[in-house]
């Protein structure tokens, strides 16, 4: 499992990576996961059909928090994330302290409003 761009690898490599991700997640959390965000948001018709055959529900985002950028800060991540529209999906990664802190601040700010938050994995079926 890497984080391959589906537009740059073979269909068999994309399928293998996706199956490994689903297997690792199921092992970790104890039930199957079928929500899937394609790395880099790239899908081709072939990879979309492959995901459908795997019974994956593809999710994309409307706002990229930019947390993956080296120059991003807690404030820049928070500012970008606050632009999500009702029902919108914000792309964030859990790989840096700045993202974790920005997420904490975002949830704190949203909890005082009428906005409901939902982690996509909470919508999985088992």
Give a description of the structure.
With 126 residues, the chain is mainly α. The chain has 2 domains: 11-58; 63-117, no CATH class. The protein is built from 4 helices and 4 strands. It has helices at 11-29, 45-53, 74-81, 97-111, and strands at residues 35-36, 57-58, 63-64, 90-91. Strands 1-2 form a two-stranded parallel ribbon. α2 (45-53) links the parallel β1 and β2 (57-58). The protein is globular, with a radius of gyration of 16 Å. 12% of the residues are buried.
What descriptive keywords fit this protein?
126 residues, 2 domains, two-stranded parallel sheet, 4 helices, 4 strands
Please outline the helices and strands:
Layout: H1 11-29, E1 35-36, H2 45-53, E2 57-58, E3 63-64, H3 74-81, E4 90-91, H4 97-111
Parallel strand pairs: 1-2, 3-4
Which stretches of 5+ consecutive residues score pLDDT under 50?
A: 122-126
The fraction of residues assigned to DSSP E strands is 5-15%
Query: How many distinct folded domains?
Result: 2
The overall average pLDDT, rounded, is: 84
- Biggest sheet strand line-up: 1-2
Q: How many separate helices?
A: 4
Note the main sheet.
2 strands, parallel
**Structural class label:** mainly alpha
**What is the H/E string?**
HEHEEHEH
Radius of gyration: 16 Å
User: Number of DSSP strands?
Assistant: 4
Question: Which overall shape is indicated by the principal axes computed on the Cα atoms?
Answer: globular
Q: Assign a percent range to the helix content.
A: 40-55%
Termini separation: 22 Å
Describe this structure in a few short sentences:
This protein is mainly alpha-helical. Helix content is 40%, strand content 6%. It has a two-stranded parallel ribbon with strand order 1-2. The protein has a two-stranded parallel sheet with strand order 3-4.
């Amino acid at each position: 499992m890497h984080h391959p761009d589906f537009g740059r690898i073979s269909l068999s490599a994309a399928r293998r990576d996706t199956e490994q991700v689903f297997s690792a997640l199921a092992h970790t959390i104890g039930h199957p996961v079928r929500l899937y965000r394609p790395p880099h948001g790239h899908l081709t018709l072939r990879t979309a059909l492959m995901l459908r055959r795997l019974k994956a529900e593809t999710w994309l985002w409307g706002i990229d928090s930019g947390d993956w950028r080296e120059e991003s800060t807690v404030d820049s991540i928070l500012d970008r994330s606050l632009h999500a529209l009702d029902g919108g999906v914000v792309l964030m990664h859990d790989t840096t302290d700045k993202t974790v802190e920005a997420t904490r601040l975002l949830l704190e700010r949203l909890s005082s409003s009428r906005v409901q938050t939902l982690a996509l994995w909470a919508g999985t079926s088992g």
